[in-house]
Amino acid sequence: MRALVVGANGFLGSHLVDALAAAGHDVTAFDRFSTDRRAFDADVATLRGDFADAEAVARAVAGHDRVFHFVSSTTPATAGSDPVLDVRGNVIPSIALLRACAEEGVSRVYFASSGGAVYGDLGASPVHEDMSPHPVSPYGIGKLTVESYLGYFARTAGLASVALRISNPYGPRQRATHGQGLIPIALRAIAAGEPVLRYGDGSMVRDYLYVEDAIRMIVSIVEAEPEHLVYNIGSGRGTTVNEVISGLASVTGIEPRVEQRDQPPTFVQASVLDISRFTAEFGGPEFTPLDEGLERTWASMRR
């Protein structure tokens, strides 16, 4: 398989590059590489380019039979503050990428969508892929829009695709500076002696998934002939924000100061993914216990 990973130097993308290369695939890493430092360890071909540059993306797609769309130029916070930026920076370039894949004859595209953001507040937990999404944030609306374009290009150009609705991944290489992810942001605050910001009373529930577990699930789909167009990628278990903060105190040995903020209206109260579709098709994945994952993440930050 000749695989192109778009967003290869990011959190999920870099781990995916390593996993695909370790499995023996011919991998090309496409990213801006703005820091000149590779986040991944594998010795693979690299292409420097901007996701917003449609011509650069089309050149990168050429010659590849699988394309992994793992780039996002915004976070839930930045998309919420400027929805137009999210459309310009994510939705429009995604359409250009899919068009290039269709024209090149790519056999399948894998899109890193978002479980919590796409489903929104459905009033049920865990949520299954057959439930109708109801995103309440610009970030989730953008992700679902790209998923809709996957369907469009499948109908009009025969471009096969899989949308990966990923829960709340965490682990090494996740940058707290990007303003996304409770765990890296809280760990950075604890290390700096700063208060941990908690939105609401800490009862919000999320489906936290260690990054290596997420990538193993994704690779299982890649190395098979998937039966469905959408898969939830999660642990199927919910953990409250307060439980995470308690776990961070345990692994760091530091009791953090917690500063409470109002819960924004676009924050979903509970988001846990039903992974029965995945387990029925690919078998039950092994999951890293949260305390062990937090310990590994903390250790990676101290290196």
From TrEMBL:
Residues 3-234 form the NAD-dependent epimerase/dehydratase domain. Belongs to the NAD(P)-dependent epimerase/dehydratase family. This is NAD-dependent epimerase/dehydratase family protein.
